[in-house]
Amino acid sequence: MSLSPAFAYRRKAINHSMQSPATSPPLISCRKVTKTYVMGTQKVHALKGVDLTFQRGEMTSIMGPSGSGKSTLMNLIGALDVPTSGDLEINGKNLAKLKSNDLADLRNETIGFIFQQFNLLGRSSALTNVKLPLRYSRNPLKDIDARAAECLEMVGLGDRMDHRPMQLSGGQQQRVAIARALAGSPSILLADEPTGALDTKTSEDIMDLLTGLSDQGITVIIVTHEHEVAEYATRRIHFRDGEIERDERATT
Amino acid sequence: MKFGVALKSALEALRANPMRSFLTMLGIMIGVASVMAMMAISEGAARQVDAQISSLGANNLTVRPGADRRGGRSSGAGGRTPFTDSDVEDLRSEPYALAVSARINGSGTVVAGETNWSTSIYGVNTDYFISQAWNAQEGRLFEDREVSSGQAVAVIGVTISDTLFEGSSALGQKIRVNNVPVTVIGVLDKKGQSNFGSDRDDVVIVPITTARNRILGGNATTRNYVSDISVSVTPGYDMALAQDELEERLRVIRKIRPGKDDDFRVFNIADFIRARSSTQATFGILLAFTAAVSLIVGGVGVMNIMLVSVTERTREIGLRMAIGARKQDILGQFLFEALGLCLIGGIIGSGLGVGAAELASKLGDFPVNISPTIALVSIGASVLIGLFFGFFPARRAAQLNPIEALRHD
Fold this sequence. Notes:
- The structure holds two protein chains of two kinds.
- By secondary structure, chain A is an alpha/beta fold.
- Helix content of chain A is about 30%, strand content about 25%.
- Chain A has one domain (about 5-25, about 55-80, about 100-250): P-loop containing nucleotide triphosphate hydrolases (Rossmann fold), CATH 3.40.50.300.
- Chain A has eight helices and ten strands.
- The longest helix of chain A has 16 residues, at about 200-215.
- The radius of gyration of chain A is 18 Å and the shape is globular.
- Chain B is elongated and about 100 Å long.
- Helices cover about 55% and strands about 20% of the residues of chain B.
- In chain B, helix 2 packs across helix 12 (about 325-365) and helix 2 packs antiparallel against helix 13 (about 370-400).
- By secondary structure, chain B is an alpha+beta fold.
- Chain B has two domains: about 5-50 and about 275-405, no CATH class; about 80-260, no CATH class.
- The interface of A and B includes residues 108, 115, 123 and 136 of A.
């Protein structure tokens, strides 16, 4: 596989010593998961029986052409949607059995989302943006300001807390979004084209940041079109027509 | 629902778009202001009527002899046999009679020093002051013994006191009423204009006996005749029933055979005023209704803006859902936004309403009554409007599918 020079030297082959798939139960497990949408009179089979598990601390990239089902899978893992059939368990909880409020709480406590377009609130400061998930938490922290500030420092924006998104660069905005995703101490980070709106240099910084988080034990799943980005992941899954085409692990 | 987050997010949204928030509030403001002004004005009118009725002495039934009609020529009101002192005494034993006042009236000239003044002269018994709810602001009223012995004493209205004594005290002064010297023992409370436009304070009141024998002497009044009787009905007693019983009793007293017409009339002046004011009240209700319509139009404006706001912020809603906001959190946020618009608009509007009512009162010279109740009702109404018209957009926001919302552009 050919790599662009800029990415080649950054490519890491991480030894996931903490990861032992055989012994600990998977954080996410999909068994025969299907998802069918009805578009007018037509049925669209977005996922056709997917079996997958993700371990804690794994960093996975998901690739595939448009309509291959990768976004659908992300939405399911993100508890934004429930499968048409099959079982999807996150942290041992079967999503099909959860009510709307339980799904919201699961997203709040277990999952952090990172979007291509950042989706920050333009009117609010970086700090307020990061505080947002903490405000919706059912087990609120005593000092959400302190936690939000801590997260901003983790992504290297300790000195930009009062800036609004408009006053930050694209890379910085994505860091704010990552800090927001981290605020609730999630086990899973779901990144949908996290570098899609960024230049190469900034993309590398963001990917380094995500890699570091995965090293700290957070399960990171990245949907991307860019091979360079996918290379950061230790596991690379390719989707085609609603099915897994390839599921490979990088070796040291 | 996380109350605090919903409220905070709602306020942030209102502040983010101050011009739009203000214009949306304007509809509510105008609605609330006009509801308030209209209510203040019609309440003011109602209070004025109540004041008029109570100044007449509430619950009075006035009795006058009927018009005589012989050979096609009417003698006018009072043409029939007048009432007498004994009729007054008879009526006192009626169960509903709290007081039975007797009055004869006439006019004459009063003189004090070198000032003279033409005025109304009433001769009354002491019950008159009870039935008219009239007290002395200075000095005292005359008593039963002064009536029975025909003392030369008088109580005078404020207009007389001001005209004849110009600021110095009238008490103890001698005045000449139709050339009869009497002593002023009291000055009456101010009553103001009557319902028919005459000055009710332009009057000299003397004991009925004194008036008959010395001041208003003449054929009709020299005996024990009474021009009109006013029966004050005990509070709680049904007025219509009392009127029926009074008419029945008068037919017996005046020996009217069954089938013959009454030769007297019984008025309930309060009824008369109420009838007259009901036109005014209907008008007030109509105005308030129009104002309420404008408040509803304001509410529709709020709904419109909220729908726009939900559409504009679809991605934000999707994001909030993705990071763990429950449906109720989103519902609450948009409901609070609509409520905020209406509540703030309502508070400012009621301020404007007070101003408008005061201004109308000054320009149009009529009384207004601004009570805290009206303000609370107006603000409460705007809150209800906010809940009602805010609910639909808020529910639409809460029902959004987070995946589609996040994809929205």
